[in-house]
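Let us practice reading a record.
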Amino acid sequence: MSYSKSMNDEVVCKPSALRHGVAEADILKAIDGYLYDGPVDGDVNKRLLPGFDKNNNLLEIMYNIISENRINVFHVKARRALMALLDK
């Protein structure tokens, strides 16, 4: 199952998601306009969702689905290497 955000969804940001200094508002902005949503190789419970924050920094967001309208974001980091994926 992939994630399709709607206005009623709840995004839970674990403390580990904020560890690299990305603000929760930037995480939510990136989720609102995500570029891709797919499973992480080797783990069906983890998903990768890259998106841009309010300053157009590309964020690597890792999450899992808690329920139909709720996700758990556990890792967020700005990743320049992901930009190469967008060129493909």
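A brief commentary: The beta strands are 10-13, 38-40, 43-52, 58-67, 70-78.
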